[in-house]
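Our consortium's second objective concerns turning raw sequence data into structural hypotheses that experimental partners can test. To show how far this objective has progressed, the report includes one record in full. It was chosen at random from the queue rather than selected for favorable results. The single chain below, 376 residues long, was entered without modification.
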Amino acid sequence: MVELSGPVDVDRLRAAHTAAYTEFEQLRVTFEVTPEGPRQQVGTSAEATLPVVTVADETEADAWMRADLARPFDLTAGAPVPLRAALLALPDGRTWWYHAAHHVLLDGYGAQQLLRRIAELHDGTVGGPTSTLAEVIAEDAEATASAAADAFWEPRLATMADVVAVAGRVDAPAPEAVRRDAVLDDAQQARITAGARRLGVGWTDLVTAAVGAYLARVANLPRTRIGVPLMNRSQPGRGRLAAAGTVCTAMNVLPVSVPADLTVAEALAATAADQRAVRQHPFLRQEELLRRLRRIGDGQLFGAQLNLVPFDLELTLGEVVGLVRNVTAGPVEDMTVCLRGTPVDAVPCASSSTPTRASTVRRSSTSTSSACWPGW
């Protein structure tokens, strides 16, 4: 959702949606399940709908979005492309620009690409995709057919016979996740960056090790595995990949091992080393790894996921400024810990004009024990 500072020209924004959907092939695909497996086909129609919904306040706007998100997308043959958009008009003149899409179409990076491109088209900026969907698929097939990746992941999977979720069990995702948010003040942010400098690491490495070690101790485990998202838009030695040139789902969430029974320095070194190793083999899909894991036992690939977003995306539609806010990332399998923004005094990965915000999302069917950062 994009919080817009004022009203917008609805027809102009709707036309920008249609133009973007036309540009990006992935936003014109339909799906069907065949005896040979699922298939997708790029269609020619890209007419966008953008209804305007008048709401009384932010509470009603939020409730409207939650209700819409509760409606599942249809991926069966003949169903429309699984995406929806709307404008929520607030009484004070502000507008919430809502956009939802199934993960089969795009991931978080792709969503930002799409919103940015719609804004560019609204303002008449040239540009557009530089890759076709066929190029993305061909490149992905080549990357995943890797003997080196198999040799790396197979022995690691053999060690994943345990359950590392804080709840101590694995269950299906609940229909709706429990979400808690907190803003980290300047003093808390300063402690993160000061600690990272003292230990000679980046703040992202420190947060990754801290969250993993904390969750391991909550679960009374000597170490745990957390899911870390990898964008997979570039590759060492190859540079920019086709997935970076269009809207799609390329992100992969892979397990990183974090110890809880070492010193801080040792835990940081071990976590950083494991992340480096995993990043060398990022393309074998999470779902394929899970299928392989199921064939050898009942272990868990990872428990909680950690998502570090060191920036807030700001868009402009003419004179209207909009700030992109994440409403949901889809079903939560166990727990998701997300940190948005760059801590004060840190070397920024991108510009950030808002306070750092931390949030946890937990399945409603897991243990009711708190599994958040200390002090939340």
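The partners drew two points from this record. The chain has two domains: 2-122, 145-311+329-363. DSSP finds nine helices and 16 strands in the chain. Both points have been shared with the crystallography group to help prioritize constructs.
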